[in-house]
Design a protein that fits this description.
The complex is a heterodimer of chains A (258) and B (267). Chain A is built from ten helices and no strands. Chain A has 258 residues and is mostly helical. Chain A has one domain. The chains are: A mainly alpha (258), B mainly alpha (267).
């Protein structure tokens, strides 16, 4: 089968999903508002946290929170893709799509393109709001490239994970199975304070949470003092590779019932 | 109207309320997807917050040295937000399935329908309040206002559940759609986030956020419950908590009743 078949399927599926997202307020508004509310609530309500003894992030609390919300928006941009896939299975569209698509890998690639468009749009809005709210970017252009590449990898891993779940379960009731792991990984990281200021079981969980490395690297890029770059990219690439296999298994599972 | 007729009407009303309340309570409690997340999510957030933000108790002026005690109030209000979703979804379901249309053909009184629908939410609110109270006593430093304070917390928590439940019912009756109720749900969470949820208002540094939190009634609902947990008997905080929750409940109840009247007339 030609490479053109793969990309034509990916483009068509990506365009359809991105179009659906932009033209359906019920999908568009919550996925944009949630990260924005998180940003405003944390950066506004918790700004005093930078006065806590031991808080040593020089770029300020707004930037500290932006580092988290950026990865959160990337992750949920990917997770919402799983909802779209489940909806397509429930409506019967996916069965028709699988019959028509010459390369089924292109279907997943298309959903991921839509996830990337969604995340890019949300991140653009959040970044604009953050800049107005006092986001201080001390990193260089290369640092920012590193930061947004990390965000793209998180988006890909989340989209592939959610695709795998949605294609196996093929129902909107699978929503919690997609959201809960993402929610747990995101919030069991140093969200509001640096790792050293965490206490109790959350610190223990953050120590083994792969997102901790990515979050610390992202915040380092923003501060202009990159840390844990190689381990963070290593973990992000590993997650993407594992979730790619997971999504491939999802396609196989969907093919069996298509 | 003679006393006998009034008595008969009252007993008829009570019977109608009782039957619909029973249906509402059973329907709510039979749906694990409504009950479990409304208990699990607030407790999970409480657990994560109290470990993640424990260091903020070192801020000068922070009212307690236990962030768990400070954050306990969030669980009660967050649970009540889930009640709004449940109430709205149940009412919308009754509209979508035609149950409300069939009821409108019977001599059922509107007030009975409203009270009956809200009973399920109060039952869920009671389960939530007791669960959060037990968790608070088990893992926190205790309730500063004692046993009486714990009872007031349950009462305030039920008032908050009723308030948000009425808002959810109003949205469902106006729109007749479960999707619209789900769409409004993020706005309830915005109200929680933009309050004195994470820090006391006097410690919020950003001016606009402090102003929003000061005008946000959710701040006073939180502070009413919080005062009983960490301060003891603070009459002003408790009164403001009940006033905000009760006021919202009254406004939303009137709005929901009006929406119900309109919907019944249409039918």
């Amino acid at each position: 089968m030609s490479r053109a078949g793969f990309w034509s399927v990916a483009r068509a599926v990506g365009w359809r999903n991105a179009h659906n997202w932009f033209t359906n307020p019920a999908m568009f508004v919550p996925s944009l508002l949630f990260p924005l509310f998180f940003f405003m609530a944390f950066a506004g309500g918790l700004s005093r946290v930078d006065s806590v003894p031991g808080f040593d992030y020089a770029a300020g609390y707004t930037t500290f929170v932006y580092g988290f919300v950026l990865l959160q928006a990337s992750a949920f941009g990917g997770i919402f893709t799983g909802f779209a896939i489940a909806r397509d299975f429930e409506s019967g569209f996916s069965r028709r799509l699988m019959l028509a698509a010459p390369r089924r890998g292109g279907i997943v690639a298309g959903y991921w393109i839509a996830a990337l468009v969604r995340a890019a749009f949300t991140i653009t809005i959040i970044t604009a709001v953050a800049l107005v709210a006092g986001l201080a970017i001390d990193g260089s252009a290369v640092d920012l490239l590193g930061l947004y590449t990390l965000a793209v990898l998180v988006n890909a891993a989340a989209a592939l994970f959610a695709s795998g779940v949605a294609m196996r379960l093929r129902t909107m009731q699978a929503g919690p199975a997609m959201q809960m792991p993402a929610f747990l990984i995101l919030f069991l990281a140093p969200v509001w304070v640096p790792y050293d200021l965490l206490t109790g079981w959350v610190q223990a969980a953050a120590a083994v949470n792969p997102l901790t490395l990515m979050l610390e690297a992202g915040r380092g890029f923003l501060e202009g003092d990159p840390i844990e770059v190689l381990p963070a990219f290593g973990v992000a690439l590993l997650l993407t590779a594992v979730t790619m296999l997971w999504a491939r298994g999802g396609i196989r599972s969907a093919e069996r019932v298509a | 109207m003679t006393e006998a007729v009034r008595s008969a009407m009252r007993s008829g009303l009570f019977r109608q309320v009782g039957m619909l309340a029973r249906r509402s309570v059973v329907r709510t409690l039979r749906q694990p997807l409504m009950v479990v997340p409304s208990l699990v999510f607030p407790l999970m957030l409480l657990s994560i917050n109290s470990s993640g933000l424990a260091s903020t108790t070192e801020l000068p002026g922070f009212p307690t040295d236990s962030y768990f005690a400070f954050a306990l109030a969030i669980a009660f209000v967050q649970g009540a937000l889930f009640s709004a979703n449940s109430a709205g979804t149940n009412v919308a379901n009754d509209i979508e399935t035609g149950f409300l249309d069939r009821l409108s053909l019977t001599p059922l009184r509107r007030v009975a329908l409203m009270l009956g629908q809200l009973s399920g939410i109060l039952a869920l609110g009671l389960i939530q309040a007791l669960t959060f109270l037990v968790v608070g006593l088990a893992f926190g430093p205790g309730i500063e206002a004692g046993v009486g304070g714990a009872l007031v917390i349950v009462a305030l928590s039920l008032t908050v559940s009723l308030a948000f439940g009425c808002v959810g019912a109003f949205v469902a009756l106006r729109s007749g759609s479960g999707e619209a109720v789900q769409g409004v749900f993020p706005l309830f969470f915005a109200a929680l986030f933009l309050s004195s949820m994470a820090l006391p208002r006097n410690l919020i540094e950003i001016d606009w956020f402090q102003t929003v939190a000061t005008y946000n009634p959710v701040s006073y609902m939180l502070e009413g419950i919080r005062s009983l947990v960490i301060t003891g008997w603070d009459g002003e905080a408790i009164a403001l908590g009940f006033a905000c929750a009760g006021g919202l409940a009254a406004i939303a109840l009137v709005a929901a009743s009006s929406a119900l009247r309109t919907r019944m007339v249409r039918t």
